[in-house]
Fold this protein.
Amino acid sequence: MYTQKRGKEMAKQFRDFESARKFVQSLGLKSKTGWIKYAKSHLKPSDIPSAPNQVYKKQWKGMGDWLGTGRIADQYKQYRDFESARKFVHSLGLKNGEEWSVYAKSPHKPADIPSSPEKVYKKHWTGMGDWLGTGRVASQEISKNYLPFKEARVQVRALAKKYNLKNWEDYRNAVKKGLIPKNIPANPTIFKKVEFLS
């Protein structure tokens, strides 16, 4: 039996977790809203807690487990490690974030592959291109590696002299030929197009 104190209310005796959950699942409730409504009603036995997550902290795995709906809260789900998950996703041959989104909502996605990998694998996440295996890197990820404006401008001016770059068309062609380092933006308007070449 479990006890729970609420304010000045006397300590209550509750059923053990397995018995309480079995009873609650027999009710056929489908959502947290349904549970709250039921918990406030006169129908709930006094030995079933209104706040089961507080009473059964050690056994608690979310409202889906409590109600028996099969839904498990993200924080209680067990996912594959990042490398294994990414390897699986690479095998799918998806081309972009839109295709991933469709797949992630489909019944084909294994339960141990997260729908929002950027949240689950924060430490490893470098972008959708890496996750899908397309090799594409998001522009915001690339921009993190750009030189500060003043340093980039010094380098570009030196390259302009070296390769005789006189205008933006010359600059774009130099980018296409691989003459401009990756830590300098291919489109300098990212720096609000201040005088960059001269």
About this structure: Strands lie at 2-6, 9-14.
